[in-house]
Design brief:
Blueprint: H1 4-16, H2 24-33, H3 40-55, H4 65-76, H5 89-94, H6 99-108, H7 115-118, H8 131-137, E1 144-148, H9 153-162, E2 168-171, E3 174-177, E4 193-195, H10 198-207, E5 217-220, H11 227-236, E6 240-245, H12 248-261, E7 266-270, E8 289-295, H13 310-313, H14 317-333, E9 337-347, H15 356-364, E10 369-376, E11 386-392
Parallel strand pairs: 5-6, 5-8, 6-7, 8-9
Antiparallel strand pairs: 1-3, 1-4, 2-3, 9-11, 10-11
Bound molecules: S-adenosylmethionine (SAM).
Length: 394
């Protein structure tokens, strides 16, 4: 690559002005917009270097920025491709598609690199996690996953083949595309397929452990733009759906997405579920809901492969803040659960305080009976890691 060294310098400049107050993606957009000299290729390469820099988390902090970007790029690249010129012959020859071997080589060069430095909160993780594999997974950019909507399998596969799209199918109805793919360029999103992480799709397997025949009324109480609602509708089909969120703007997005997804009959409202009185203003059926989906606001620590800047800016105090918020929300929400109904509690966090400890709270304090609870480990499949727990009300 002609300008590899220059790109490193530009990345150093971009990173020097970043303080984490915006997502990196938005910050870089503003950075490039402020100086018209960057063409689209420049923007792509400089962004890539900035993302690599954050993927190594708190490791390599002893290196000067330029060196840290180079070593991070080396570790994060399964192929060096055009970046060869940045490295000596010895480094180029030692490069391998195997991440663990690249790490070994870097350590042999006298550069310390430990999993606990990439992700410094390994002690707080759910005990079920392979912490080294999880920490190292941040060095690889995750796939873009699609969930094919019911009845659309043939059509979607035909379109992908026609457009010569490279993809794999980790499970039926799931398409894995290379990182950063723009699926809207070849598919009708939301009607033919939804962009939904593999682990998020697997939440459906946990839901299906409920006695589906008993489920008619469903409330998605932290609906955002409706990803889980569309999943539930596709799995259970004959349901009366109610959605709510604390943000009116996101409910607006949800309505647009539901229209594209062909979901026309549902109720929606805006509610802050930290307010115990919130339900008095919501459309709760007389006997309560048969299923409440609580995809709670969380640290998002299972998804930082997509937003690696979080590794640099997240503070431990946030874990408690989210855990408290989750308890308040779920405590209010279960007041609207019908006897015999189900609660599906979900996070995209790896922290025990947001996962197993919340399950214990829901069981012991809210008196719901656990049906299933699982950590959906995406770190071996370039996917997010999530937690899903299903409960029933006696
Ligand atoms: C993890 S997101 C939900 C994602 C969504 N279920 C999906 O699949 O796309 C959590 C949502 O909880 C909402 N939320 C945060 N605090 C809340 C509160 N106090 N009451 C209700 N919803 C809240 C956020 O606005 C956010 O949209």
């Amino acid at each position: 690559m002609q300008y590899a060294h220059r790109y490193i310098q530009y990345a150093v400049t971009a990173l020097a002005g970043f303080n984490g107050s915006l997502p990196l993606q938005h910050y870089l957009k503003q950075f490039f917009a402020a100086d018209k000299k960057y063409g689209s290729k420049d923007r792509r390469f400089i962004s890539h270097l900035c993302y690599c820099y954050f993927r190594t988390g708190h490791a390599l902090q002893q290196l000067p920025a330029e060196e840290r970007i180079k070593v991070s790029l080396y570790l994060c690249s399964e192929q060096l491709e055009g970046w060869n010129d940045l490295f000596t012959q010895a480094w180029q020859q030692a490069h391998t598609p195997q991440l663990t071997q690249r790490i070994q080589f870097v350590v042999q060069q006298g550069i310390p690199f430990e999993a606990a430095a990439v992700f410094p909160w390994l002690q707080q993780c759910s005990s079920d996690i392979d912490t080294t594999a999880f920490a190292h997974s941040h060095l690889l950019q995750p796939h873009v996953f699609l969930r094919v909507r019911p009845g659309m399998q043939k059509r979607v596969l035909q379109k992908l083949q026609q457009q010569q799209v490279v993809f794999t199918q980790p499970q039926p109805d799931c398409i894995a595309l290379p990182p950063a793919s723009k699926a809207d360029q070849f598919l009708q999103l939301n009607s033919e397929a939804v962009v939904q992480d593999l682990s998020s799709q697997r939440v459906g397997d946990v839901l299906l452990q409920a006695d589906n025949k008993r489920i008619r009324t469903v409330w998605d109480c932290c609906a955002a733009s409706g990803g889980k609602s569309i999943l539930v509708k596709d799995l259970l089909s004959d349901i009366q759906l109610t959605v709510s969120d604390v943000r009116a703007s996101i409910i607006h997005n949800l309505k647009q997405r539901f229209a594209e997804a062909g979901i026309r009959s549902y109720q929606s409202f805006v509610a802050d579920l930290t307010d115990k009185e919130a339900l008095k203003r919501g459309p709760v059926p007389g006997k309560g809901f048969d299923l409440i989906v609580c995809d709670a606001p969380c640290s998002g620590s299972g998804t930082w492969g997509r937003t690696p800047e979080q590794l640099a800016f997240f503070t431990t105090a946030e874990i408690d803040r989210y855990a408290t918020l989750q308890r308040k929300i779920v405590t209010t929400a279960v007041n609207a659960l019908a006897p015999g109904g189900f609660l599906l509690y979900i996070t995209c966090s790896v922290f025990a305080a947001e996962n197993e400890q919340q399950t214990a709270y829901i069981q012991n304090q809210l008196q719901l009976k656990p049906v299933a609870a699982t950590l959906l480990k995406g770190y071996h499949e370039k996917a997010d890691t999530m937690y899903a727990a299903l409960f029933t009300k006696a």
